[in-house]
Amino acid sequence: MDIKVSSKTVIVFDLDDTLYNELDYLKSAYKAIAISVEPTDWRPLYSKMFSLYRNKINAFDYIADLYNTKIELLVEMYRNHQPNIQLFDGVLTIFEAIRAKNGKIGMITDGRSRTQRAKLQSLNILNFIDKIIISEELGTEKPQTANFEAMQNALPASEYCYIADNLKKDFIAPNILGWNSVGLIDNGKNIHSISHQYMNDENRPQHFIIDFNDITII
């Protein structure tokens, strides 16, 4: 699909499962935890943790019992580690194309400030983003319109577009506010996999893409 961009355009992105797979963040955190508790032979524990997760069994309960560790400590390690994650193919090309057309780039993401900013740092895209709105910092989260109205106030423009993945909550507010909306289809690894339940007009984006190579900035 073509997206027309000018100096009066703001393209806003979700983060988790939109610019990278959130499952990779989980794997990165599990690896960091496994190394912390079994530094000389962490791979078997990492394998066990990921298998437990895949079978919907709480890996933190398992580690807390096995190593006599508090779950709260494991959660802190999970949230505060520096992640090893990578952008989806085509994201940087889109960012560079938006910049070349003098458009602005925003980020609206739910989550904790420290965690989300660590992800952005690891993805090495902070220099591209003109405004970052994180739910913990603002005190509201999607699907409330406040996050999107805050973006409009921070980056006034005539055209806004939101690119995200989660039909349950991502597109309700931008649809209400008259933004363009683009849904990235689950590549089979998304943490949230229930988009089929939210195909009504309120939740659906105006457009769907398979990946970022489906977008051409004009």
TrEMBL record:
Highest taxon in the source lineage: Bacteria
Keyword terms: Hydrolase, Magnesium, Metal-binding
GO molecular function: hydrolase activity
Pfam family, one: HAD_2
Alphabetized InterPro entries for the sequence: HAD-like_hydrolase, HAD-like_sf, HAD-SF_hydro_IA, HAD_2, HAD_sf
EC number: 3.1.3.-
Cofactor(s) listed in the protein's UniProt record: Mg(2+)
Annotated NCBIfam families: HAD-SF-IA-v1
Listed name of the protein: HAD family hydrolase
Organism: Winogradskyella bathintestinalis
